[in-house]
Write a structure and sequence with these properties.
The protein is an alpha/beta fold and 217 residues long. It has ten helices and six strands. The protein is 53% helix and 13% strand. The chain has a six-stranded parallel beta sheet with strand order 2-1-3-4-5-6, with helices on both faces. Helix 4 packs across helix 10 and helix 7 packs across helix 10. The longest helix is centred in the middle third of the chain and has 16 residues.
Length: 217
């Protein structure tokens, strides 16, 4: 039997220990490494070349969405399952667009995670049973919006720059340094973008940026 080598990217030690205990009971699965933040996840993925990554979305230093994109650019063949508390369409869509192969909610049973692992390592995809009914509706809605145009046309060039940097996981302070403006100016641009797009989370901005080609695939 071939062994599936897994990288566990989760910033909470208790959750990591729980997942490790669960997977240790299953034949054919091996924890090859553990990452406590997004940057470490990207680096360990490069060093260890795991078969599968279990990736949290809310991690320090580099968010899970950006970490997924960077890992997939390094190795398009590595399989990634998101494990998260976020059950919104915005996070789900952003994760799938970034390259995730599975999406599992932490509130669900261990059987959901095991099913996801089985499906994903054999080349399939897996979306949490609590969310899968919303995937099709979300993509249909997005396609309709793209066909009819969008309010994104009202964004200024500077607002588009801010949107791109927010979607890349940059903090307001980092954006201010990159654009040579004040943090207050960044906050104003960010508020304007959210108001014009009617999007109120960073994950929603990431999904919008991906949908409209503002981020490199």
């Amino acid at each position: 039997m071939n062994t599936t080598r897994i990288l566990l990217a989760e910033d909470h030690a208790i959750l990591r220990e729980g997942v490790k205990s669960l997977l240790a009971e299953l034949p054919g699965l091996e924890i090859a490494g553990e990452a406590e933040d997004g940057r470490e996840a990207v680096e360990l993925a490069r060093q260890l070349q795991p078969d599968l990554i279990l990736m949290d979305l809310s991690m320090p230093h580099l968010n899970g969405i950006e970490a997924i994109k960077q890992v997939k650019r390094q190795d398009p063949h590595v399989r990634i399952i998101v494990m998260t508390v976020h059950n919104s369409d915005e996070y789900l869509r952003a994760a799938l667009e970034a390259g995730a192969d599975g999406y599992v909610l932490k509130e669900e049973s261990h059987l959901e995670l095991l099913n996801a692992i089985r499906n994903v390592v054999t080349g399939g995809t897996h979306v949490s049973s609590r969310l899968c009914g919303r995937v099709v509706n979300g993509y249909l809605g997005r396609s309709t919006a793209q066909q009819t145009g969008g309010v994104g046309d009202t964004l200024t060039d500077r607002e588009r720059e801010v949107l791109k940097l927010v979607a890349e996981g940059r903090r307001n302070r980092d954006i201010a340094l990159a654009l040579s403006v004040s943090v207050k100016t960044v906050e104003k641009h960010r508020a304007n973008v959210m108001r014009k797009l009617d999007v109120h989370t960073a994950a929603g901005l990431t999904a919008y940026a991906i949908d409209h080609g503002l981020l490199a695939r």
